[in-house]
Each structure stands twice: as structure tokens, then as C-alpha cells.
Design goal:
Elements (H helix, E strand, L loop, with lengths): L1 H30 L11 E5 L6 E4 L2 E2 L11 E4 L3 E9 L2 E10 L4 E5 L7
Parallel strand pairs: 1-7
Antiparallel strand pairs: 1-4, 2-3, 2-5, 5-6
């Protein structure tokens, strides 16, 4: 009776140790796995807009009025086709249709008579 009790305790102890070691080894596998990287944001970068102009994307104002023409405006947009317009007062001085793929950056270089 005592012998069987000792065997069952020893067996239970070994089983616990085996389970702990197995779980530790399995969890260690996740320590070295690469984490997925976040995709780059989808952006339109507007460069060369005249001072005081407003940038519109798909008919909606995006960003603040341009302070200087040598600073770019970075606009986060959804992937797809977009219409970029530069308004100076009530006049559209530049218009461009562009397509931005997911995670891509598209540069819109404004070529208006005010910047040349």
C-alpha cells in the first residue's frame, strides 16, 4: 500500500514537471516569432501649392491654408482614385486626378502660374 502510494506521488510529480517544461518550451516558440509590421499609411503629398491656397481632396478641404509654397502638406487618404484641387480664393488654380494604392505615397507637384 505504501509502495503504490509512493509510486503514484512520484508519477504525479514527474507528470507535473513534464507539463511545466512542455508549456515553457511551447511558449518560448512565440518569443522569437516576427511580429507583423503595420503597413505604411496611404498618403498624398502636395508640394508647391501657392501661399494662402487651400487643398481640396474629392471636394472636401484637407489641411490648413498653405503658409509657404516650399513646404509640403501630407494628407492621409483612403486608397483609390482622388481629385486634388488647389483653390486660391474662389479660383481653382490647379487640379489633378490621381490614384493612390494601399500603403503608397503619391506626390502631387503643383505647377501653377503663381509658382513659376
Amino acid at each position: 500500500m505504501i509502495r503504490s502510494c509512493l509510486r503514484s506521488r512520484a508519477w504525479a510529480y514527474r507528470l507535473r514537471v513534464f507539463l511545466v517544461i512542455t508549456l515553457a518550451c511551447l511558449s518560448a516558440c512565440s518569443w522569437f516569432a516576427r511580429r507583423p509590421q503595420l503597413p505604411n499609411p496611404t498618403e498624398i503629398i502636395v508640394t508647391g501649392a501657392p501661399m494662402g491656397s487651400l487643398v481640396f481632396v474629392d471636394g472636401l478641404q484637407a489641411g490648413q491654408p498653405t503658409a509657404t509654397s516650399d513646404h509640403s502638406q501630407i494628407l492621409n487618404v483612403a486608397a483609390g482614385a482622388h481629385k486634388v484641387e488647389i483653390h486660391l480664393g474662389d479660383v481653382v488654380v490647379y487640379r489633378e486626378d490621381t490614384y493612390v494604392a494601399f500603403g503608397e505615397q503619391r506626390v502631387v507637384l503643383v505647377l501653377s502660374g503663381l509658382n513659376r
